């Protein structure tokens, strides 16, 4: 899959293309449905399936104070898209200049001239171009002029009857409901980052933890204790994860993410690891000393093993 981040360097063999466009934050179940349909429809017509996405949420440029935090980093999004059998992903630098393109300029310059679009596939609520003026009606009205076919996909629901959406995933992460997040995403939500040095207290209390660097990738869910899977390269371990500021102790920064890898004693400093979150166990508690914290950690490990099916 080509990854194109500079619009002046689009290889000529990307055309003729079948394109879908969107923020695709989180690449949830609904997004994957759109991308898999794109793949099938492109193949049926002998076109190259291409995803056009953005290097940041459009709101980060248009109204930064309202911009939601990303569910996945661009690197995580590309890793997920690489598995979808696409010919290319275009990561458009969403600059103020790009945001000013009218719907017509967007379609004509980017989709028609640069990417040779012959098929456009979007969800019913897709909007684009200056002020979000472009929509499905605009695309339908200009299909003959620009020589593309338009397919508007049906909605893909999440669990229950709510439509899968990035907004819903963010709401669920905020309250720590990673179990439902897994259903909306169609996979576990993953935090990825480098292991850095913590306060070195964990080893003393018998539960050494791997602390993720504060610049980690993946939206950090609400504070609490979680069961998950810890990936270090190809090795996978069960883990109990703590997210918060460890209120039992003073001076711990907000939103520290640390993982106790169950039953292992590993040297992980400097490694880039991934933590897949399976279920929230409980809230963070301010304990009266190390004794009660340790007793609770022992119970957390047992609960985690039960959830992961390894007890
Ligand atoms: C499964 C798990 C649950 C935890 N729960 C709490 C908690 O409820 N309250 C708290 O203050 N710290 C909690 N912690 C964090 C510990 O206080 C922390 O791991 C310890 O202070 C070591 O920190 P260090 O890695 O910076 O040395 C938890 C840690 C783990 C691994
Ligand atoms: N649940 C869904 N079913 C079908 N199509 C969807 C679904 N969710 C998004 N799409 C389509 O996928 C493309 C990319 O969506 P995009 O990421 O821009 O928005 P979104 O997932 O609706 O996110 P948000 O919640 O932030 O509005 C668009 O064409 C959109 O209409």
Characterise this structure:
The protein is of the alpha/beta class and about 300 residues long. The protein folds into two domains: about 1-150, HUPs (Rossmann fold), CATH 3.40.50.620; about 190-310, Elongation Factor Tu (Ef-tu), domain 3 (Beta Barrel), CATH 2.40.30. It is built from ten helices and twelve strands. The protein has helices at about 30-45, 60, 75-80, 95-100, 105-115, 135-140, 145, 165-175, 180-185, 290-310; strands at about 1-5, 15-20, 50-55, 90, 115-120, 150, 190-195, 210, 225-230, 235-245, 255-260, 270-280. The strands form two sheets. A six-stranded parallel sheet has the order 1-4-3-2-5-6. Strands 7-8-11-10-9-12 form a six-stranded antiparallel barrel. A hairpin with a 2-residue loop joins strand 9 (about 225-230) and strand 10 (about 235-245). Helix 8 runs antiparallel to helix 9. The longest helix is centred in the last third of the chain and has 19 residues, at about 290-310.
Ordered list of secondary-structure elements with their pairings:
Elements: E1 2-4, E2 17-21, H1 29-45, E3 48-54, H2 59-62, H3 74-82, E4 88-92, H4 96-99, H5 103-114, E5 117-122, H6 136-141, H7 143-146, E6 149-152, H8 166-174, H9 178-185, E7 189-196, E8 210-212, E9 224-232, E10 235-244, E11 256-261, E12 272-282, H10 290-308
Parallel strand pairs: 1-4, 2-3, 2-5, 3-4, 5-6
Antiparallel strand pairs: 7-8, 7-12, 8-11, 9-10, 9-12, 10-11
Helix pairs in contact: 8-9
């Amino acid at each position: 899959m080509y990854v194109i981040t500079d619009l002046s360097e689009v290889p000529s063999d990307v055309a003729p293309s079948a394109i879908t466009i969107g923020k695709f934050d989180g690449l949830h179940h609904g997004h994957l449905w759109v991308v898999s349909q794109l793949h099938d429809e492109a193949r049926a017509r002998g076109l190259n399936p291409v995803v056009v996405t953005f290097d940041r949420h459009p709101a980060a440029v248009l109204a930064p104070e309202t911009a939601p935090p990303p569910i996945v980093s661009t690197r995580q999004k590309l890793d997920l898209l690489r598995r979808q059998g696409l010919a290319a992903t275009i990561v458009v630098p969403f600059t103020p200049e790009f945001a000013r393109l009218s719907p017509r300029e967007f379609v004509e310059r980017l989709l028609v001239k640069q990417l040779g679009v012959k098929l456009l596939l979007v969800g019913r609520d897709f909007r684009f171009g200056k002020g979000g003026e472009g929509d499905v009606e605009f695309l339908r009205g200009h299909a003959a002029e620009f020589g593309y076919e338009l397919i508007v996909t049906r909605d893909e629901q999440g669990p229950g009857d709510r439509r899968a959406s990035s907004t819903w995933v963010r709401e669920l992460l905020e309250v720590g409901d990673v179990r439902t997040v897994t259903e909306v995403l169609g996979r576990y939500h993953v935090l990825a980052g480098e292991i850095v040095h913590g306060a070195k207290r964990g080893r003393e209390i018998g539960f050494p933890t791997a602390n993720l660097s504060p610049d980690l990738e993946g939206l950090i869910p609400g504070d609490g204790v979680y069961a998950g899977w810890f990936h270090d390269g190809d090795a996978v371990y069960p883990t109990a994860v703590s997210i918060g500021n460890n209120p039992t102790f003073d001076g711990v920064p907000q939103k520290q993410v640390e993982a106790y890898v169950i039953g292992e004693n590993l040297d992980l400093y400097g490694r880039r690891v991934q933590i897949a979150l399976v279920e929230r166990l409980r809230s963070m508690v301010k304990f009266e000393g190390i004794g009660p914290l340790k007793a609770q950690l022992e119970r957390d490990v047992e609960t985690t093993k039960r959830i992961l099916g390894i007890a």
